[in-house]
Every structure is written in C-alpha cells, then in structure tokens.
Amino acid sequence: MEEPRIIKKYPNRRLYDTATSQYITLEGVRALVLAQTPFQVVDNQTGEDITRGILLQIISEQEEKGMPLFSNALLSGLIHFQGDALQSSLTDYLEKSLLLFVDQQAVFRKQLQAPLAATAATPLAIIHEMAERHFALWKTWQESLFPEGNQKGSSSPE
Predict the structure, then answer these.
(1) In this structure, is residue 153 part of a structural domain?
(2) Model-level pTM?
(3) Which domain, by its residues, includes 126?
(4) Separation CA 127–CA 131 (nearest Å)
(5) Which of 24, 75, 131, 153 fits a disulfide with 28 by CB distance 3.0 to 4.6 angstroms?
(6) 35-78 pLDDT, tens per residue?
(7) Local structure of 59: helix, strand or coil
(8) How far apart are alpha carbons 37 and 31 in whole angstroms?
(9) What is the CA radius of gyration of the chain?
(10) Does 155 map to a domain?
C-alpha cells in the first residue's frame, strides 16, 4: 500500500505538501481526495493527525459555495446521533452505504457508456438493482440492531 502524502499545517493556518515542497490550498487537498491520493494532514507543532478536521472544513466550504449535499434534516439527524449509543452503528452503515453507492455508480456509468442496445440492462433496471441492494443493506443493518423485532413480521416493500 502506498504511503500517504504528508501535509503539514502551520500555525499561520497554511498547509504545506511535503511531497511537492509547496504550499497547498484546501482546494488542492480536495483535488487529492478526488484523485484518490492517500494523504494525512498533521499539525506541524504537535504532530497530531488533523485530517478529519481539514476534510470537514472542505465539506463545509463546498456546502456554502453551491448546491448542498447535506439537507438540514440530514445534518440534524447526524447531530442527534453524535454521542448516542448507536453512533458507531450509524457510522458503519453510512460508510457501507457510500461504498455500495460508489460501486453501483461505477457499474451504472460503465453500462451507460456501452450502447444501450448492446446491453440487456436499461438505466431503469440498473437503478432498480441499486435500490434493491441498498434496501438489503438497510434491512441487514436494522436486523443487527433490533433482532427481537424482526421475528414479529417485519415489513418489506414488495
């Protein structure tokens, strides 16, 4: 596995990319994320890993610039679960959901690039399959949290 690039944050709030020996902006860090380049941001004085804080700062800036990714209801829900006993379960569920969504998006894009006549799957069928997989993930997560409630006739949207 590739060693992560080290980006140092200095007290003057500037970020320094040690791989390129240049200062880097938050937009530059965002570009690293989009390029899937492994990196770690460390506080130059303490050596503390502050990657999460920088990523949150990038998300915050992006939310303010354009069309928000997070609705008020979603953000309120995330705040509600912070410190809750189910926080780690929600984190695990969201991570797995995002990975599933990314995988399905890659399949969807690949199939759309091929001529639709050459493939048996239509865009609607692909979306339906993605929804079915997401529902199965949601149901598994719910069953792991509430195993006793699943024997009394859980409902399924069929």
Answers:
(1) no
(2) 0.66
(3) 72-147
(4) 6
(5) 24
(6) 999 999 999 999 999 999 999 999 999 888 887 888 889 889 88
(7) helix
(8) 9
(9) 21
(10) no
